[in-house]
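Dear support,

Our group has been running a series of protein-ligand predictions, and this particular one with sodium ion is the one our PI (initials K.S.) wants archived with full inputs and outputs. We had some confusion internally about which version of the output was final, so please treat the block below as the authoritative record. The input we submitted was:
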Amino acid sequence: MRETMTRVAQVTGAMARAALWISGAGLVLMTVLIACQVFWRYVLNDSISWTEPGSVMIMGWFIFLGAAVGIREGYHLSFDILVHLVSDQVRDVMRTLSDLVVIAFGGGMVVYGAELALNAAPNVLPSLGISGAFDFLPLVAGGLLVVLFSVERIARRLAGLPTAAFGEAVAED
Amino acid sequence: ETTLKSSDTHPDGYPTVEAVEAMGKMIEERTDGRLCVEVYHSAQLGEEKDTIEQTQFGAIDLNRVSLGPFNNIIEETQVPSLPYIFRSVDHMHKVMDGEIGQEILDAFKEHDLVGLAFYDGGSRSFYNSEKPIKSMEDLKGMKFRVMQSDMFVDMVSALGANATPLPYGEVYSSIQTGVIDGAENNWPSYDTSGHYEVAKYYTLDQHLIVPEVLVMSKKSWDKLSAEDQEVVRQAARESVPVMRELWVAQEKKSEDKVRAAGSEIVTDIDKTPFIEAMKPVYEKYVKSDKLKDMVARIQATE
Amino acid sequence: MELWVLFGSFVFLLLLGTPVAFCLGVSSFATILYLGLPPVVVFQRMNSGVSVFALMAIPFFIFAGDLMVRGDIARRLVALAGAMVGHLRGGLGQVNIFASVMFGGVSGSAAADASAVGGLMVPQMKARGYDVDYAVNITVVGSIIALMIPPSHNMIIYSISAGGRISIADLFTAGIIPGLVLALSLMVAAWFVARRRGYPTEAFPGAGALLGLFANAVPGLILVAIIFGGVRSGIFTASESSNIAVVYAMFVTFFVYRSLSWNDFVSATFAAVRTTAMVLMVIGCAGAFGWLLAYTRVPATMVEMLRGVSDNPIIILLLMNVVLLILGTFMDMSPLIVITTPIFLPVAVAFGVDPVHFGVILILNLGIGLCTPPVGAVLFVGCAVGRIPITQAMRTIWPFYGAAFATLMLVTYIPQLSLWLPAQFH
Ligand code: NA
Ligand code: NA
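Confirmed final output from the archive:
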């Protein structure tokens, strides 16, 4: 069980790494787009109308992918006072319970994100000219990873491997 | 007893909010309190694009929205959103109260919505901080904030100006500092946004006279008995004159206020070159025979 | 009943240790199921809650801050502050506060300020014979200044939570004087504590050395001028200024200081992604939570309740400050801004408070909450930097809490502190 989990963790670790690289590239791309928006408007006196919705869409990707990776790495904000006051067994039960509700929520992101995407699919997004479904794809993709990484947490705990604890990785405001 | 939840992005006391509340009173009286209406104003439940989805899914029952967000969803709503399609507010009333208006309301049905009534949205005109705009020549190269819609961006470009996308909350300081030269809106918004303080030249070119619409969720509609449906439909119809009266008063109040504050209003412009410049816009957006026919009928309406 | 489901499940999950973002999301999910409404709304609100252009300032300012810390801009600012105020009583403590003013002018994050300024100052202070708790306390409370002096992404979060209709440029401008008042009152507190404990002063390094350090820090300092000048002269908007900060920080660290390696750049990018994703996920989920609050009419009920308590704005403001301070001890800043703005702002406005003024009160109040246990990100950073337990910091932090609280009262009851400066630009 432990060995299997260690091997699984290599795969999920690679996925988290990939998600981080995609997100980081998105952040840099966004920086370039908005810088162009300012340059075009102020220097060339010609406004671009797609940079704004375009970067908002990129932001959606790195928020939801990044939030999912945060589950694996434990960098989400949390209120972990009670967790420190109870015995190890109770703590494991609490953490597993918490992972289960997060799985339910991740499932919601996938299912209802897909419903929203289908509903918006026939519409055309202003300025971008692409299907409205694209608005909701980051939500679906992020949800999938949220479910995956939370399941991994439970599996690791069952296998006796450590999981990242929320609140211990220092968070910024 | 059922409470119909209604969304509006305008603040409490705004004509559209009051009209829906007046409609709610009629419904309550005529159903002996079985049905009432509760308005969530000031975009409490979200911006229009979002509340439209919420209405489609049945999370809210009624929704007062502009036609703009529907343009990419329901083809027919593009027609009244075309620049300079209406010669005047009266012309718009005549068209929307008639069979063309009904055709557009009917088009909502395919999108899980029931179109109930059209309200006034006033007429939108350009204002800016630089100079009184009297001709298309004056607009050349100026930067205007418009709503995020392809048609409006194309309209501004066709007039020779620059359409600049900006969040609404940044428009005031952006005009003030010169990021943009101006924006466009109706009298009440020109007033309540405070934009008149920084953009004192208002040119009444009335490029857009777009009505707003009151829709109901198809899901909520189907839950009502046939009688109650008729009560709702009738009350919505009767709320229209209420709304129009409130609107005129609101416009007058805003106009008086900004005039007193020293805004320079340009009223006497020749709109013909503006209208002629819209040819490419009409060619791009009025493609199907259905829309072409509708445009022709509107232009033929006296 | 639905409010019990909403708040009950929220508190339950919070105690369970579930990340705050998911506490907000799951309790909204549960409540919408309870109400029998389509759950799709929760996920729509979450998605549109983060699909807002002005929110882009958050990743950008955080990214810029990471680049500045890794690329040596922060260190040079601190060195300059040392030369400028080091000769005052409690010299390095004063330097620490003054450095927050300068770093605050380029960064909007209190935690970034605590780690940047604290990371540089605390070891120096230790070496010069200052008690570590004094160094940590000043670092922690001083970093609230970064929230008040523009840029501040929390001001942007506030503007958006208020429906996006409050000018971000005005909010930025409004924070300046309160930020300086806070710095001043903290410097006074630092002076008194230093006198009681007999801390040394530093020698004034002389005009020549000062000039040298100034020249060294100029590229960093220019950013303040670029951001403020750029916004006020119409080259870019307040939210776009965050982008300029990133571009400029890259330019300075890559080409002027040549202090940033490719690896530094990659790790700064990842750090920014992690922090941003965390903050914005909270904002997104709070969007769903806020929808349910509005749907169940919580804000309106709150206004009614407070109206019943008193019709005196002075008392109402005090009451709101107390509630916010209490909430601030338990929760972090950005989720609280998104949750409380839709509830409290209508109350404040109903009692005649200007929304810009209220924003400044809110940010300062919740900024204090960042420095208080049990949940205080900045306190944690400060204690980690100084390697002392939180209890040790807590014993002697009170004069600084006192100074911050006094500033909060001044800012609350003297609206002109916030509103005078923005009015000069109208
Ligand atoms: Na700052
Ligand atoms: Na706290």
